[in-house]
Amino acid sequence: MNDLSRLPNSDLLEQFNAVRAHTRALVAPLSAEDCAAQSMPDASPAKWHLGHTTWFFETFVLAAHEPGFAPFRPEFRVLFNSYYHAIGERHPRPQRGLLTRPSLEEVMQYRADVDHRMQALMAHADEATPWMPLVTLGLQHEQQHQELLLTDIKHLLSCNPMWPAYTDQVTPAQAATAPVPAWQAFKGGLIEIGHQGTGFAFDNESPCHKVYLAPFELSSRLVSNAEYARFIEEGGYEDSSLWLAEGWDWRASQDLSHPIYWQPRPDGGWDEFTLSGRQALDLAKPALHLSYYESDAYARWAGARLPTEAEWEHAMSSGVPSTKWESDQWIGHAWQWTQSSYAPYPGFRIAEGAVGEYNGKFMVNQYVLRGSSVATPAGHARLSYRNFFPATARWQFSGIRLARHT
Amino acid sequence: MNDLSRLPNSDLLEQFNAVRAHTRALVAPLSAEDCAAQSMPDASPAKWHLGHTTWFFETFVLAAHEPGFAPFRPEFRVLFNSYYHAIGERHPRPQRGLLTRPSLEEVMQYRADVDHRMQALMAHADEATPWMPLVTLGLQHEQQHQELLLTDIKHLLSCNPMWPAYTDQVTPAQAATAPVPAWQAFKGGLIEIGHQGTGFAFDNESPCHKVYLAPFELSSRLVSNAEYARFIEEGGYEDSSLWLAEGWDWRASQDLSHPIYWQPRPDGGWDEFTLSGRQALDLAKPALHLSYYESDAYARWAGARLPTEAEWEHAMSSGVPSTKWESDQWIGHAWQWTQSSYAPYPGFRIAEGAVGEYNGKFMVNQYVLRGSSVATPAGHARLSYRNFFPATARWQFSGIRLARHT
Amino acid sequence: MNDLSRLPNSDLLEQFNAVRAHTRALVAPLSAEDCAAQSMPDASPAKWHLGHTTWFFETFVLAAHEPGFAPFRPEFRVLFNSYYHAIGERHPRPQRGLLTRPSLEEVMQYRADVDHRMQALMAHADEATPWMPLVTLGLQHEQQHQELLLTDIKHLLSCNPMWPAYTDQVTPAQAATAPVPAWQAFKGGLIEIGHQGTGFAFDNESPCHKVYLAPFELSSRLVSNAEYARFIEEGGYEDSSLWLAEGWDWRASQDLSHPIYWQPRPDGGWDEFTLSGRQALDLAKPALHLSYYESDAYARWAGARLPTEAEWEHAMSSGVPSTKWESDQWIGHAWQWTQSSYAPYPGFRIAEGAVGEYNGKFMVNQYVLRGSSVATPAGHARLSYRNFFPATARWQFSGIRLARHT
Amino acid sequence: MNDLSRLPNSDLLEQFNAVRAHTRALVAPLSAEDCAAQSMPDASPAKWHLGHTTWFFETFVLAAHEPGFAPFRPEFRVLFNSYYHAIGERHPRPQRGLLTRPSLEEVMQYRADVDHRMQALMAHADEATPWMPLVTLGLQHEQQHQELLLTDIKHLLSCNPMWPAYTDQVTPAQAATAPVPAWQAFKGGLIEIGHQGTGFAFDNESPCHKVYLAPFELSSRLVSNAEYARFIEEGGYEDSSLWLAEGWDWRASQDLSHPIYWQPRPDGGWDEFTLSGRQALDLAKPALHLSYYESDAYARWAGARLPTEAEWEHAMSSGVPSTKWESDQWIGHAWQWTQSSYAPYPGFRIAEGAVGEYNGKFMVNQYVLRGSSVATPAGHARLSYRNFFPATARWQFSGIRLARHT
């Protein structure tokens, strides 16, 4: 798939079909039972992701612009609303796993019906059609849910003591060891971050604005599983001086001693739960599924710190990665925690109407992650992209890039 | 189906097939999704009931007595263990709804496989075979789970804001009003309760023992929906003096103002969630799905009290019901709360081995219910049968029979 | 102090002064700070006990019968109401420890003022005065709070890591070992329990009624610390088969491995927190401060069971204890858990008015304890006395008498 | 009291005596009972503040530098440790209110003893003595606890339904209305924030560093009670679109409809709980005791936003307040929430040793407040001072200054 952010509107129908098909492909390996369960309040059933992404198009495009609009099923307006107060009632999030009806089959019919009507509507639209940006937003939104669908399914399957596999495919092992990381220096100064140009971006990436950076260094690659295993072996989870106070209390209250999907093996090594089921931990790969607290503690142990989001974006926009492998370490392997709390950029303005609830109202007690992960749809991420999660989130494909002052 | 408790062992195979078929029939109207979800920690998914009742035969009969026994799937020993510490590890009860694997289909294969092997084993057994009583126990156990499966599915479907139906069949309405209840007097004295004879009974029904009863009266029928509605309309849920202190705090903490499956209608009447979906409340029928706290408060409001289990059993064994309608009010409509806490009978002895965990270890902070309900399999209940639930339980088919001193 | 229950009314004033003085004596060793703190929602500050027992006389006697009554301070009507809904608002129980005002000094003035007015009122009353029984009830009520005051202070001081002492006095050690217990046999039959005669008794002890008992045996003494220590050493807290299911979950959730006031010593023995501070555990004394769950598990481990309250009362009224030492094992050392849930006696009627809230509304999910303890005021207990607490209660002076069937 | 941050070390002894005496003066109106209670886990008893501030000098100065040091009482090392893991065990914070021993009197003796020994030690020290900066840190630390002592006592007394007063003194009413606020414009650019010069500052105020600011405007005064009351009257607590999502859920879960110390009057106006007890709300005064969530919602309602901490510091250092009244609106009335999360400044380094736990480990999920309040000791605050609390904190003397982009 190409980068959606650079598409002319005339190709949007083709993109619509591609993104919608990709979501269907993601659930192809899953049973109706797999799609219905919810492993924790923070996660949603795959069936709910399927319905909600369809609800977005039905609610924000069809209901407003389709001649003679009638809802596929009126109850879905409530069932598949995520958090839009302006749209009205919502089904309580922690109870999404109890919606055994509508069935997966009916939700797939809902998808097909809305696809069909969207295709008909879009056939008569062009770049100047006022609601076409809402279609783009809907596709970006669906891509976000594609990643969430994978994170949520991975968490659900991990709760099954049999650790069943989502897919038979196993990711090929990496080189035996990751290359030695290098510190890459940046002199900082008055730089700019934020979305530029005419392509798509979420409202939270704007406006582009100036930031002053002191000189800094970033590691040339992500922290590897081997390195994180050493942090554990050397007592990282038992030494309170490495942790933020709140992180230490969180760790202690749940008695955590390793990442969420790791399990110690009798031989002293580690197994890992993956989308391909139980596997020996690949030591050369970047460590994944780490919370902010774990990432921050690791950084302190390593004599370093997490980068700010401005440092990350500046480094990445300076053309740092010079090889495909390096590039993958920035975009495409792990979301990288920054020490920047999720906050509005100077001059940020919330969009009018219900879609204005998209981003701004979450700007408290969350931390920005940059880059993208193995679970991010191709073409979805951008240099200026701002992902965000609370400091406790462990089930995302999140890892660590180290920074330090010079 | 006939009364299992009166069966000669030689008919046990036929009964085995009938009980096992009945469980399958109960899930026939349900999708795989319906069978996988768990609406609260107290309830279990239908699929888990299907697996656990099968696990009972595999664990307690086949594993011990089948030549060359091999488990259908070793993981099931943990997944489908309910609370038998002696059998080893158990999957945590509140997470049964996350077991999307094994699939419903695989669990049905598990059932078929165990049925086939049980049939083979039983073909060579007779009344003298030492493990035949375990088969009877397993069938009684499965019948208990048949009722739980219905209570749990009803609760699950009620959590769906669309109130979907389990079945298209609607129970025919009763007569417009229930007959006026009469007080039936018993002179008491030194009587006996507990299981007598050679038929099957659970260990908690023994030994048969003497109890002294003061004279008492019982109502000739169950409290009706119309009567319970009047309790609500006259402020029963707002008057603390009617409630046990703990019941009042429970009511207040959840802001309860009516039974779990009732919903006020705009016209001032009540709708009720049933296995046939949303229905107008049938005022002539016995009130159902009441907690001990609600039942006790109602009785106090009515100037009466709940019976003891000895009073109930003595009245019933005195041949009280003289018509089919009256009889249904005792056995077959609603489990009837008694004020008797669930405790061992004098001389009660726990069975040896793992099945000894069946009843005794639950004898604290629960109250005995007598009779049986519309959801109880035909032939399962007995005069001496002791059902039990905590005082907060609202999702069972439980109702109220009034008593008073004379 | 003599037995209140046998007093002629003409001596009531003298008794009033004695009981009220005893309460003051109990708090004499305590500072204002000690009296203000609340260690858990189940406990109350000593200052609150002082105020509440005074509030009882002010509310139920003075407010109704004193000419020209004016409250000492109107706010106290709410602050010192425990659970009487009929009296109106109550200060939330878990926040009693936040009432730093009124000061202890002001509460003592409140006591003195109410005492003075009660004395004046009682000077003109005699046995026929209708409210004199309320004075007796108030004194019995105050004696109950005298014991609670000690249990609550003991718990509070135990929460201080310095384990400070309530008193300098140390109870003299017992004989090196307790005498070997004997099983005392009772043939049972149709017996009577409940309050008889004209002395004072709480409503929950009536009516006197017939109960049928199968033959049984009771141990001649309470379980000793030495015996309970052996239960621990032999794995009693690690063996789920000894525990009620709910008790085991409770034990596990709090990771309990010994009684609440015991602490293992480095030498393998036990220290105990007492009202005299930290002491070596006196092995010959009865084990104290045990919950129902712990008592029940111990009994199962010992191949016995807990008695019913009817068995206990029948044995005691049969004149069993033949020596002072034996008698103390029944009345005066430890409240003894029975397996009887706290329920109304046949024909029990709640008193009219606010004092009707005294007992009946607590008759659910609690278990009856019989006897009395080292903390019970002299003369307060009776053969028919029914104390009651939830199965989790550990901070009361509660112990174990074993029973068994014959 | 003068500004501590500008003191030559030679005056430190005088300052030591002044700060220590001021703490004693703060508790003078309180009883021992008042000083012992803890109203919530976030607050501490006054007695604990008295002990902990003394423990700081005993632990970090005397223990290390006093010849022949012996602790006043060894147990205090644990009891009065707040959060210093490096010092060892700590008494659990939520149980500080259970420490009825040591008594207030003993804690005052502890203070006097440590004061005496500190005075003796300081008599022989001068500016070059290596541990003198620890004395300064201890005094700054004690001043922080002086404010906390007042916030915690205010919260405790507010939990008493009688709303008792801390002091008889009543703050004189303000002018009938606050002056009309003006927007003061700043052109921004590359500016500097952070501590400069040689006076005392906490580690979190360093290093001084460059920040780029877009042009912005700040309100000339704090939001008044009258303005905040209008926000309530116009539905501010019922309109989810004004709130951060997490703030809205927090508000709803506690059913909040006004600031913590406000109470509606029957006449439609507001009363307020103050340190002088219940008072009519002074409409002209700045609104106080607001959480971040409430402040942020108010700002959105007012068409504005909260400032960043860099904007605040830059404006204040630009010499903005031109009158005493204006100045008080910046420093001395209310801590002002900023939208800046509490994070390390570029190049921040944690101090060596136990005092390194002072600030850095709290840098997550908290928001910076600037200025100071009516409860801040004179001379304690600075331009670069960074106070911080979680977004839910309501019991601090915190208010709102509005900002907007230009």
Automatic annotation (TrEMBL), chains A, B, C, D:
Sequence ranges assigned to domain Sulfatase-modifying factor enzyme-like in this UniProt record: 185-325
Signal peptide interval: none
Protein name per Swiss-Prot or TrEMBL: Ergothioneine biosynthesis protein EgtB
Sequence ranges assigned to domain DinB-like in this UniProt record: 15-147
Pathway(s) per entry: Amino-acid biosynthesis; ergothioneine biosynthesis
Domain of life, source organism: Bacteria
Species for this entry: Ottowia thiooxydans
Lineage: Bacteria, Pseudomonadati, Pseudomonadota, Betaproteobacteria, Burkholderiales
PANTHER family: HERCYNINE OXYGENASE, SULFATASE MODIFYING FACTOR 1, 2
Entry keywords, A to Z: Iron, Oxidoreductase
InterPro entries: CTDL_fold, DinB-like, DinB/YfiT-like, EgtB, Sulfatase_Mod_Factor_Kinase, SUMF_dom, SUMF_sf
A Pfam family annotated for this UniProt entry: FGE-sulfatase
